[in-house]
Structures are given as C-alpha cells and as structure tokens.
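In this supplementary section we document a worked example of the pipeline. Step one takes a protein sequence of length 148 as its only input; no multiple sequence alignment statistics are reported here. Step two produces a three-dimensional model, which step three serialises into structure tokens for compact storage. The input and output of this example are shown verbatim.
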Amino acid sequence: MTFSAKTHRGKLIFLLFINVLSMVLYFPSGILAYLQLSLVFLMLLLVFIHFTLRIEDGLITYQVLFLSLVIWKKELNPHQMIHLTFKRVGWSTQCAVIENKQMLNLRIIHFTPENVFQELALFAQRNGIPIIKSKDYSLLEKVGKGSG
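The serialised model returned by step three reads:
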C-alpha cells in the first residue's frame, strides 16, 4: 500500500510572503540581500516537496520527491531494520521511527491515509521486527480505538 505526506505548505507560503514583503519594503543590501534571496528560493523549493511510503510484502520504500522528480529514495528490507518504534509527538500526533543498520532512520509522521501505523505494525509482525511502543503512544491508541 502507498502512503503520502506533504510539507506544511500553508506555513511555508506565509513565511515566504513575509520574507518577500520585508525584501520589498526594506530593500536589504549586501550579504543580507543574498541571504534573503536564498531563503526565498529555499522556501519555494520546499513548497513542492512531498514524501511517499510504500509498504509491500518484504520491502519498505521511502521517497522524497520534488514535484515528480525523485530526490532521495531508500529501500529497506526486514534484514536491514533493527526495530520499529512508535511514539507520540505533540499532543495527539502519532509517529513511527524505523531504525535501520545503515544510513538514516526513517521518521514516519503526517502520512495519509491514517492507517499507516497499523500497516507498519503488521509489516513488523510478519517479518519478525521488534516493535517498541511508548506509553504515550499506547494511550493515543486507546483513545483512537475508543472514539472510532
């Protein structure tokens, strides 16, 4: 199954607007102008970044895309994974961290559809990957089951 997530575009566009407005009103010069232009360019790039996560039988594929161009791709099989940690971030947001033997750990947060965590737990159970759940995450799971 394929899951997707986007950057917080509303917040980025607001910051982009503020930055462009300050450039127009105050006309920065020297190094500050280059810094603000770099910041505007970076924010424009970040608006178009999105993420995909594909969970298949024996493989998890994580991609970072700019429009439809793949910037970074990581394929993990169960032998590369150390464990899967479920935890809470913020007040009511669930998060999963896939700790692997090489490179960076994958942090799964704000992916849609919402059943990404159930799919990850099922993948881990099928492939014998240890699962760690924080107390806060377990509380969120109980609250989620009670309200649904």
